[in-house]
Design goal:
It is a single chain. The chain has helices at residues 9-17, 21-27, 35-43, 55-58, 63-75, 84-91, 111-116, 132-144, 161-167, 182-191, 230-233, 253-267, and strands at 29-33, 48-54, 78-82, 99-104, 122-127, 149-153, 176-179, 195-199, 205-206, 217-221, 238-241. With 268 residues, it is α/β, with parallel strands linked by helices. The strands form two sheets. It has a seven-stranded parallel β-sheet, sandwiched between helices. Helix 3 (35-43) crosses helix 5, helix 8 (132-144) runs parallel beside helix 9 and helix 8 runs parallel beside helix 12. The longest helix is centred in the last third of the chain and has 15 residues, at 253-267. The chain is elongated. 38% of the residues are buried. The mean pLDDT is 92.
């Protein structure tokens, strides 16, 4: 590992590029921030491309910081020390730990291979979700409920910095697939004999009465404001609705996801 205290500007520019979708595509990498995410990335054998740390963090004598710095050193990729005020600008003052890295983006998983590798797979599809924080939370929820894969269609980038932070490390373990065409996805699911289920605010089968397929389920969760589009709803095998208190028309998309995935997992 090489540590330089003056030649940091070009490295910081690379980190900043990773904050945009275009930059992540060009770099084939995304950024992670903070001590916990770095610990989990290293333990998950993720490939770190480069790292920047603040001067204060590099001098931090605490056991946890020392252990992480040692692991970074052993990984032998480039590490640059930058001024504290520059790190504060990069992190917008967040207190997750003054360390950021670029992580190599994984190859796109083979969806068909993932589905056929396990009995009764569960797929979570985020359709048109626009808040990267919701995407990250849903990835974490999918991981916690033993989902087979997380699929993004026509929504926010799962490698957006906010999404990655919100996953709390699940991004390193949950297979993530981005598909641009919902029709292509439906054709794949039909070919694999996976039942498609859409969560809707009303007029679906009430969740307690729902019996999920034992051959595999693809759960579609829609946009935070408008839900699933009507055209897609008409193409799904079944619709479900979560019973809610009178006067409440919907849950947050991640809360609803957690409720439904838990029931799918319970029935397994």
């Amino acid at each position: 590992m090489m540590v330089e205290q003056n030649k940091w500007r070009s490295t910081v520019e690379q980190i900043k590029r990773s904050f945009t979708t275009k930059g992540r595509t060009q770099l084939n990498a995304y950024s992670i921030e903070g001590i916990r995410l770095h610990e989990r990335a290293l333990h998950a054998a993720q490939t770190l491309v480069l790292t920047v740390v603040s001067h204060s963090f590099w001098q931090d004598p605490t056991e946890r910081a020392a252990r992480l710095k040692n692991e970074i050193t052993l990984s032998k990729h480039e590490c640059i020390v930058i001024p504290d005020e520059v790190m504060n600008e990069l992190t917008n003052g967040r207190s997750l730990g003054d360390i950021l890295s670029l992580v190599e983006k994984p190859n796109t998983p083979d969806l068909e291979g993932l589905v056929t590798a396990v009995p009764n797979p569960t797929l979570l599809i985020a359709q048109g979700i626009i808040d990267p924080g919701n995407i990250g939370a849903m990835i974490r929820t999918a991981h916690a409920n033993n989902a087979t894969a997380f699929i993004v269609c026509e929504g926010s980038d799962p490698y957006h910095p906010k999404a990655v932070r919100t996953t709390m490390g699940s991004i390193f373990k949950m297979p993530v697939v981005s598909i641009s065409s919902i029709n292509d996805l439906l054709q794949i699911l039909q070919r694999l004999n996976i039942e498609t289920v859409g969560a809707v605010a009303e007029n679906g089968v009430l969740l307690p009465a729902m019996h999920f397929s034992q051959k595999g389920t693809a759960l579609f969760m829609g946009n935070e404001y408008f839900g699933l589009p009507d055209q897609l709803i008409n193409q799904l095998n079944r619709l479900i609705t979560i019973p809610m208190a009178t006067g409440i028309d919907s849950m947050s998309v991640n809360a609803a996801t957690a409720v439904v995935l838990y029931e799918i997992q319970r029935q397994k």
